[in-house]
Fold this protein.
Amino acid sequence: ELPASEFMQVADSTWLVLSVVSNGREPSGCQATGVTKIARSVIAPLAEHHVSVLMLSTYQTDFILVRERDLPVVIHTLAGEFDIYKEESGECVPVTCDDGSNGFLKPKPAASPTLHPVQSPQTRFCVLTVAPDTLPAIATMLIDVLFYSHGPPREAGASSQDLDSITFFSFSLIEGYISIVMDAETQKRFPSDLLLTSSTGELWRMVRIGGQPLGFDECGIVAQIAEPLAAADISAYYISTFNFDHALVPEEGIAEVIQLLQQRQESGR
């Protein structure tokens, strides 16, 4: 319903949302969270089958977006590891491998994926949620931060040495649940009693992936970050965008993360 505009580009693909549920079992407090939980079981297998994914981590859970046309490949790839359900009229209906695998063709081996540069700004981030009934109290501030408070974008291709800070603000509203990622300085502008975070109140640092717009077609971008973090049992929230991908890791682990990703890049050359 949005009016056509020369300033708006719309990808021609329709995307479907996958969410991974662990049979109602809550992860233990020491277990890695975010994209790390599903790196080996979901992200890596889809990358191996050349399925492009968009990743959206939120305060509550993680979502994987896949193209609708890739659904047969997705079901064929994940059916051995997961029970798969689709939502129909509000009900969860089991999906068998045969249901979604019509026309499935085993993909041809692809060339090695591009190893994208990673940058780590000094900015410290918070992952937060807000009770829906308190949203009106911060609505004006949200609008200001989302649309009016940021400066002009930095020149593309800025090196990691130049990247002292980064403007990043993410707001999602999914089935009534609100998730916000903001830098620690921006958080100070909001009423502290309305922003809810984990009991530890930990801060996060960002690894930004990409030196030029990544688009939506390439496969394996999430996997090349998520797999080494999963191997090291490091929690990570991951947010895909058109221009860059962003992985948020606990502040105290940023040096290890940078070292891991640099080693991966060097071994991939």
